[in-house]
């Protein structure tokens, strides 16, 4: 592939995820590396264009305009995995699921089950603290139309695989949406987890238990519809539905 191709990943980039992610020894180092990634030219061009053009409602903001790392403590026993940052949400604020409608519902639900110090997440420095949960995504850049390509998803995969491996006390994962579910299963295999055959299907309320191995405990995998504006407006997803899934996951994770 031509190194100037604007659609495919830059495998010659020194920060390429497959080369960089496995070398990260802690979440702080990983988050810094994620924030500097420029592996996917289409996503780089889009996130930077959005940051330059801005939405009128946020004209006074200086957009983050970079890949958005995960958010939450290193001792998290529960992870929440979404899709990707929103163009005027995480891409604006620099915090996963922060500044958009999906995040508003998610953090309110996390607060309702005791996993967040407050029900809102508006910007870094707003005082929000997560308790035992880390929020992340399989794709760390805002994609056009909220649709990463399969190549972009797979290029970004090592970041999530390393992130989950660094959460040594991880007991449960809540996956928001079918895209996240399909993206996560290969990540779990990459971290050495044994998946059932056939692979478990996504559905709201799906619950799969993956066996432990060595010094790792079993891992509970929960499916939930994504708290997108469309899903909420059509009542496919409600606040109560999300709270129920998070409460079940928090229970098995020991929170």
Automatic annotation (TrEMBL):
Q: What Gene3D superfamilies does its record include?
A: Uracil-DNA glycosylase-like domain
**Pfam families per UniProt:** UDG
**Domain of life assignment:** Bacteria
Q: Where is the Uracil-DNA glycosylase-like domain?
A: 69-246
Entry-linked InterPro entries: UDG_Type-4/5 (IPR051536), UdgB-like (IPR044147), Uracil-DNA_glycosylase-like (IPR005122), Uracil-DNA_glycosylase-like_sf (IPR036895)
Tell me which UniProt keywords the record has, alphabetically: 4Fe-4S, DNA damage, DNA repair, Hydrolase, Iron, Iron-sulfur, Metal-binding
The family annotation for this protein states: Belongs to the uracil-DNA glycosylase (UDG) superfamily. Type 5 (UDGb) family.
| Name listed for the protein in its UniProt record | Type-5 uracil-DNA glycosylase
């Amino acid at each position: 592939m031509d190194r100037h191709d604007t659609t495919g990943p830059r495998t010659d980039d020194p920060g390429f995820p497959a080369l960089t992610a496995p070398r990260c020894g802690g979440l702080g180092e990983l988050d810094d590396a994620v924030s500097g990634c420029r592996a996917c030219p289409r996503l780089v061009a889009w996130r930077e264009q959005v940051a330059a053009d801005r939405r009128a409602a946020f004209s006074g903001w200086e957009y983050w305009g970079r890949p958005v790392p995960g958010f939450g403590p290193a001792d998290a026993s529960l992870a929440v995995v979404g899709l990707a940052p929103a163009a005027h949400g995480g891409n604006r604020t620099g915090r996963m699921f922060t500044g958009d409608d999906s995040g508003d519902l998610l953090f309110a639900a996390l607060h309702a089950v005791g996993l967040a110090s407050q029900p809102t997440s508006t910007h870094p420095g707003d005082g929000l603290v997560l308790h035992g949960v880390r929020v992340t995504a399989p794709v760390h850049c805002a994609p056009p139309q909220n649709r990463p390509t399969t190549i972009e998803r797979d290029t970004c995969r090592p970041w999530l695989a390393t992130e989950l491996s660094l959460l040594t006390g991880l007991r449960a994962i809540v996956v928001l949406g079918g895209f996240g579910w399909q993206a996560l299963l290969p990540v779990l295999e990459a971290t050495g987890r044994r998946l059932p055959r056939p692979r478990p299907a996504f559905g709201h309320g799906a619950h799969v238990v993956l066996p432990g191995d060595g010094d790792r405990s079993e891992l509970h995998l929960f499916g939930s519809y994504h708290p997108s504006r469309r899903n909420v407006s059509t009542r496919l997803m409600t606040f109560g539905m999300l709270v129920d899934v998070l409460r079940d996951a928090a229970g098995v994770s020991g929170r």
